[in-house]
Amino acid sequence: MAENSLRIVVERNPSESKLSELNIKCWPKWGCSPGKYQLKFDAEETCYLLRGKVRVYPKGSSPATAEYVEFGAGDLVIIPKGLSCIWDVSVAVDKHYKFESSSSDH
Predict the structure, then answer these.
(1) Which of 24, 69, 77, 98 has its Cα between 20 and 30 A from that of 39?
(2) Domain limits, the chain
(3) Domain (S)-ureidoglycine aminohydrolase cupin spans what residues (predicted)?
């Protein structure tokens, strides 16, 4: 059951002020071409998609249940630590990302 408590949070079109407050333009960039990717997140990731379209299927869900989270260009996404999932990328992704450090001395 714990697997189901791992929720992806998507904020559509966050404000410019929020993006600059997070200093997103200084975050590293990552991209991938369309395809399916098996991913496991060992740390919480916050990412901002510059382009692309993704459907994320949490591990344990089947395409038949159609349990997925969809996001794309202009979305700010928080992916929880410990999530195993499949990224089904329909449009090539280009994103800024940041992993939360495990220390709590921010």
Answers:
(1) 24
(2) 2-99
(3) 20-97
Output the pTM of the full model. Answer: 0.86
Is residue 30 within 8 A of residue 54, CB to CB? The reply is no
d(CA 63, CA 91): 19
Q: Looking at the domain that runs over 2-99, which CATH code has it been given?
A: 2.60.120.10
Whole-number CA gyration radius for the chain: 14
Residue 67 scores a pLDDT above 90:
no
Q: State how far the Cα of 83 lies from the Cα of 8, in Å rounded to an integer.
A: 9
Sequence-separated (6 or more) residues with CB below 8 Å from residue 34? 89, 90, 91, 92
Measured distance CA(28)–CA(40) in Å, rounded: 19
Of 86, 88, 9, the closest CA to residue 45 belongs to 9
Q: Encoding tokens for residue 80?
A: 């929880």
The dihedral built from the CA positions of residue 77, 86, 73 and 13, taken in this order, carries a sign that is negative
pLDDT category at 79 given cuts 50, 70, 90 is very high
